């Protein structure tokens, strides 16, 4: 398995600049809001999304030299992602994230909602100040997509009849939309042709879908330490993902557990054991590999450079997470 930290070595200094700028950008006048925002960025995270933005920017910019607008877009992308996590944790009643207490468990649910709103507002302000209307249009739709994804997830909670297609649509709204849009936004700032912009959009879309499917697999097979949040939380919250949807075809007993919403003691663990006895996880892995491969195909006609090579490594890293 390729270590994620090694993948990002070519942009290590750019990520240091990003981390420094993020702390300056989220400064709030009210001490509580500032403390909540600082709490989030102190927790760190892999910074995969802004890393992808920086790499697309380097791959498309003249002489591979980043513009200040590229850097700002990477920062905006991470702020939007972090804002969505704050709201996700409230909706899922998740007490830990990235190994530390979540905002709503550290402060309160009200503060967490306000902190998430504040971060979305900050990202919108910085986005408007990029001065590129096309990029504003591309990125602003992402925030709408987040809401669409959350509504769809809420309406299908504990519903075993949702299709894989519906699951994939929800996964696009919740995860892939931001990665796809920010890839296209970086290419747009570089002023490359629209066909190539679309290729980078497809790269981000399919990478994002693969990433979400792998996350959902790890929720069944992984540890809390690996996930950065409690394992099995998807099942507990009625979020039926690819592994369990595939497993339902082979294991009717899962329907009974879903019907009683995993309320009995040990239901969650029993469901995980039943899923692991089916081919549900393998089928979900195959689906993730298909999307990772499609992301690589989107880059197949791109000239070779270090940034493109690194973007390809990221697609492979996503799959390596389950090996």
Automatic annotation (TrEMBL):
- GO MF annotations, alphabetized: metal ion binding; prenyltransferase activity
Q: Which SUPFAM superfamilies match?
A: Terpenoid synthases
Q: Does the keyword Metal-binding apply?
A: yes
**Which biological processes are named by the entry's GO terms?**
isoprenoid biosynthetic process; quinone biosynthetic process
Query: What is its cofactor?
Result: Mg(2+)
What keywords tag this UniProt record?
Isoprene biosynthesis, Magnesium, Metal-binding, Plastid, Transferase
| Family annotation (CDD domains) | Trans_IPPS_HT
**Similarity section:** Belongs to the FPP/GGPP synthase family.
| Name of the protein in its database record | Prenyl transferase
Q: Which gene encodes it?
A: preA
């Amino acid at each position: 398995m390729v270590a994620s930290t090694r993948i990002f070595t070519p942009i290590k200094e750019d990520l240091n600049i990003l981390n420094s700028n993020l702390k300056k950008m989220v400064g709030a006048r009210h001490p509580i809001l500032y403390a909540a925002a600082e709490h989030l960025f102190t927790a760190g995270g892999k910074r995969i999304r802004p890393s992808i933005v920086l790499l697309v920017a380097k791959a498309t910019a003249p002489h591979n030299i980043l513009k200040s607008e590229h850097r700002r877009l990477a920062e905006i992308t991470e702020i939007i992602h972090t804002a969505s996590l704050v709201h996700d944790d409230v909706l899922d009643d998740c007490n830990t994230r990235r190994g530390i207490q979540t905002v709503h468990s550290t402060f309160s649910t009200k503060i967490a909602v306000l902190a998430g709103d504040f971060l979305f507002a900050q990202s919108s302000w910085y986005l408007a100040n990029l001065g590129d209307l096309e990029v504003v249009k591309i990125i602003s739709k992402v925030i709408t997509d987040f809401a669409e994804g959350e509504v769809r997830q809420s309406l299908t909670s504990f519903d075993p009849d949702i299709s894989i297609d519906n699951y994939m649509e929800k996964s696009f709204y919740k995860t892939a939309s931001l990665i796809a849009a920010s890839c296209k936004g970086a290419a747009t700032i570089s002023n490359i042709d629209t066909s190539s912009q679309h290729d980078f959009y497809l790269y981000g879309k399919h990478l994002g879908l693969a990433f979400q499917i792998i996350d959902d697999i790890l929720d069944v097979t992984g540890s809390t330490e690996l996930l950065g949040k409690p394992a099995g939380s998807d099942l507990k919250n009625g979020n039926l993902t690819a592994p369990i949807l595939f497993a339902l075809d082979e294991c009717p007993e899962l329907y009974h557990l879903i019907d009683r919403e995993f309320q009995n003691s040990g239901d969650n663990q029993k469901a995980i054991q039943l899923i692991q006895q089916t081919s549900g996880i393998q089928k979900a892995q195959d689906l993730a590999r298909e999307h990772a491969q499609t992301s690589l195909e989107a880059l197949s006609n791109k000239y070779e450079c270090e940034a493109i090579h690194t973007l390809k490594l990221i697609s492979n890293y996503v799959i390596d997470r389950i090996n």
